[in-house]
Write a structure and sequence with these properties.
Shape: globular
Number of strands: 5
Largest sheet: 5 strands, antiparallel
Oligomer: single chain
Radius of gyration: 16 Å
Strand content: 15-25%
Structural class: alpha+beta
Helix content: 40-55%
Order of helices and strands: HHHHHHEHHEEEEH
Length: 185
C-alpha cells in the first residue's frame, strides 16, 4: 500500500532539505582550504537555477544530481554500503515524489545574495561537536561542508555537502550516521 504524505509533512521535509542545503555553504566564505572545482557555491547556484526551472524534468534532474551515488556512498562507508544503499534509494524516491515542494522551498526568498560555506574539518565548533565522530570515520580525502545561503528576503542554513573527486553531493543528517552505522553492525 502506498503511503500518502500530508502537505505539512512535505513542506516540513522541504524546509528541512533547504535548511540542510543552505548550511553546507558557510565554509566557502571562511576561505576554506579546498581546491574543489567547482566550488560549493558554484554547485549550489547551479542547483538553484535547476530548481527554478519551469520544467519539472529539469527540477527532477537537479534533485537527482544532488544525491550521492552508490559508489560515493561506498567510498564513505565501505563496510555498510550494502545495508545503507536501499535506505538511500527509498529516501531518493520520496524526495523525487515531492520535488515540486522542495524546489519551491529551496528557491523561495528571491535571488541569492551570499553563499557562506563552512569546512566541517576546519571549523572548531563543528569538528569538536556534532561532526567529531563522523569526521573520525570519513576518509580524509572527502571534503565535508555545511553552508548558509542569504537571499533577498531570507537566510537559511542546513545540510552536509561532500566533495569526492570532481563532484559535490548532499546527504541529509550526515552527522547522525555514526549512531546509524553502530546499529547496522
Amino acid at each position: 500500500m502506498r503511503q500518502v504524505h500530508s502537505s505539512a509533512t512535505v513542506i516540513l521535509f522541504a524546509l528541512g532539505l533547504f535548511l540542510l542545503v543552505a548550511t553546507g555553504m558557510i565554509a566557502e566564505c571562511q576561505a576554506p582550504k579546498t581546491d574543489a572545482k567547482p566550488t560549493l557555491g558554484d554547485a549550489f547556484r547551479k542547483w538553484d537555477k535547476g530548481f527554478a526551472s519551469e520544467k519539472k524534468e529539469e527540477r527532477l534532474k537537479t534533485l537527482r544530481s544532488m544525491f550521492p551515488t552508490r559508489k560515493e556512498l561506498g567510498h564513505l562507508f565501505p563496510d555498510h554500503v550494502d545495508k545503507l544503499w536501499p535506505k538511500f534509494e527509498e529516501g531518493h524516491k520520496f524526495l523525487e515524489e515531492n520535488v515540486e515542494s522542495i524546489a519551491t522551498e529551496i528557491t523561495n526568498g528571491g535571488a541569492i545574495t551570499k553563499i557562506t560555506p563552512i569546512d566541517a574539518r576546519a571549523d572548531k565548533d563543528l569538528a569538536s561537536g556534532a561532526f567529531k565522530e563522523l569526521l573520525a570515520i570519513l576518509p580524509k580525502d572527502v571534503q565535508v561542508f555545511q553552508m548558509s545561503v542569504s537571499r533577498e528576503t531570507r537566510s537559511s542554513t542546513g545540510g552536509t555537502f561532500l566533495f569526492i573527486k570532481d563532484r559535490w553531493f548532499w546527504i541529509k543528517d550526515l552527522e547522525t550516521f555514526p549512531k546509524i552505522l553502530d546499529k547496522l553492525k
